[in-house]
Inverse folding.
C-alpha cells in the first residue's frame, strides 16, 4: 500500500482568480470521463491548497467520494458568487474598514483616538466565514479520510507572529510532521479558521488568530514566504503532481506598461501580490524540473539509495492575462468598492492587477472558468499522459 503511486493536486492562491481553477477541474473531469474514468472516482489522492486555492481544495476534499459532484459544487459557487458573500461591500462597512485604514496610513500621527482599536485591513471579510460554513461539509471530509477515499488534505498559512510558513494537514494514515528552514508542518483537524487564515490576503483582509501548541499566533495568507509550494504534496507521498496556477507564471507582456508614469498605489499593490502568489511557484516548478532531470541521469541502482525521487509534474496556468480580464469587469463591483479601489488607482488598466484579486463577481469569475476549461481542453493529451499508469 505504501508503494502505491499517489497523485497530488496543488491549487495556488489568488483571491477571485481561483475561479480559473474550477474551470480547469471541470475540464479534467470531462477529459477523464471521455477516456472511461468512472465519473465519481476522485483522481487525486492528496489535495493541497493555498489562500483561495485552499478553499477550493477543501471543498473538493469534502466531496472526494464523488469527484464529478464535487466539481459541479465548486462551479456552482464560483459561477454565482458576489462580492457580498466574501467581504462587506456596503458604504458604511467600506468606510469603517477601507477608508479608515487609508486615513490611518496617511494621518495616523493625528488620529490618536484609533490607538485603542485601529482598523486592521482594507476590507472586512466576515461574510466569508458564513459562506464556508454553508458550502463545506467537514464531517464528510473526516469520513473520506477514514475510509481511504482521500489520502490527505493540506492547506498553508503564514504566521505574522513567528514568521513561520505553516502547513496544516489531515491524513488518512499517520504522516510524520516535517520542518524545514522557516517552514513547519502541523497535523491537525482542519477547520474554517485555518481556511480563513490561509486566505487572508495581506493588508486586504485581517489576520486570523490560531492557537498553536497552546499559544496564539496571528496568521495570514499562505502564499507569503511560501518558498516551496509543491513541497507539502511530496512530503505527503505524492509521486506525481498537477499544479493549477491562478496567473501567468511567465508573462510575455511583462513590459507592456513600460511607458506609464509613476505607479499608482494599486499598481504597486498588484505587483506585490503577483510576486507573492506567482514567483515562488515558478521557482519551485523550475527546481523540481531540475531535480527530475538530474535523477534521470543517475543509474537506477544508485538512485534507489538516494532520498530524492522523481516526481511527475504537470502545470496548467492561464493563457491570458487575468489583469486584462479584470479590467473589463470592474464596473460590476458594488459602488462603494469601486469608489475605494478607484481612489487607489485599481480601476485603471495599469492597476487592474489589484482588482483581479478582489473581483468576486459572477461576470468576471465565469470568464475565468471558461478560460480554465479552454486551457485544459487544449492540453487534453498532456492530461491523459499525466494520469496514465
Amino acid at each position: 500500500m505504501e508503494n502505491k503511486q499517489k497523485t497530488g493536486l496543488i491549487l495556488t492562491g489568488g483571491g477571485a482568480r481561483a475561479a480559473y481553477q474550477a474551470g480547469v477541474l471541470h475540464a479534467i473531469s470531462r477529459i477523464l470521463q471521455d477516456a472511461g474514468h468512472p465519473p465519481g472516482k476522485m483522481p487525486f489522492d492528496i489535495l493541497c491548497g493555498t489562500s483561495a486555492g485552499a478553499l477550493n481544495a477543501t471543498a473538493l476534499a469534502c466531496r472526494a467520494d464523488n469527484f464529478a459532484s464535487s466539481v459541479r459544487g465548486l462551479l456552482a459557487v464560483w459561477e454565482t458568487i458576489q462580492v457580498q458573500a466574501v467581504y462587506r461591500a456596503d458604504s458604511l462597512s467600506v468606510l469603517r474598514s477601507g477608508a479608515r485604514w487609508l486615513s490611518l496610513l496617511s494621518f495616523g500621527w493625528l488620529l490618536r483616538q484609533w490607538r485603542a482599536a485601529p482598523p486592521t485591513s482594507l476590507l472586512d471579510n466576515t461574510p466569508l466565514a458564513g459562506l464556508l460554513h454553508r458550502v463545506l461539509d467537514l464531517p464528510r471530509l473526516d469520513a473520506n479520510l477514514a475510509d481511504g477515499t482521500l489520502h490527505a488534505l493540506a492547506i498553508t498559512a503564514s504566521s505574522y507572529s513567528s514568521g513561520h510558513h505553516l502547513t496544516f494537514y489531515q491524513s488518512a494514515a499517520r504522516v510524520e510532521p516535517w520542518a524545514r528552514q522557516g517552514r513547519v508542518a502541523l497535523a491537525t483537524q482542519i477547520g474554517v479558521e485555518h481556511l480563513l487564515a490561509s486566505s487572508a490576503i495581506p493588508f486586504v483582509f485581517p489576520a486570523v488568530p490560531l492557537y498553536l501548541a497552546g499559544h496564539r499566533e496571528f496568521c495570514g495568507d499562505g502564499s507569503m514566504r511560501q518558498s516551496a509550494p509543491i513541497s507539502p504534496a511530496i512530503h505527503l507521498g505524492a509521486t506525481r503532481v498537477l499544479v493549477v496556477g491562478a496567473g501567468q507564471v511567465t508573462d510575455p507582456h511583462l513590459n507592456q506598461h513600460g511607458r506609464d508614469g509613476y505607479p499608482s498605489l494599486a499598481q504597486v499593490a498588484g505587483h506585490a501580490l503577483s510576486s507573492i502568489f506567482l514567483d515562488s511557484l515558478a521557482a519551485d516548478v523550475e527546481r523540481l524540473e531540475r531535480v527530475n532531470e538530474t535523477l534521470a541521469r543517475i543509474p537506477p541502482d544508485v538512485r534507489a539509495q538516494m532520498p530524492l525521487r522523481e516526481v511527475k509534474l504537470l502545470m496548467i496556468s492561464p493563457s491570458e492575462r487575468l489583469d486584462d480580464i479584470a479590467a473589463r469587469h470592474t464596473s460590476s463591483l458594488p459602488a462603494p468598492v469601486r469608489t475605494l479601489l478607484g481612489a487607489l488607482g485599481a480601476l485603471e488598466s495599469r492597476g487592474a492587477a489589484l482588482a483581479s484579486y478582489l473581483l468576486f463577481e459572477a461576470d468576471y469569475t465565469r470568464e475565468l472558468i471558461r478560460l480554465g476549461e479552454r486551457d485544459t481542453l487544449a492540453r487534453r493529451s498532456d492530461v491523459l499522459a499525466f494520469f496514465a499508469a
Q: What stands out?
A: Strands lie at 7-11, 46-50, 152-159, 165-171, 179-180, 183-187, 208-212, 215-221, 240-244, 312-316.
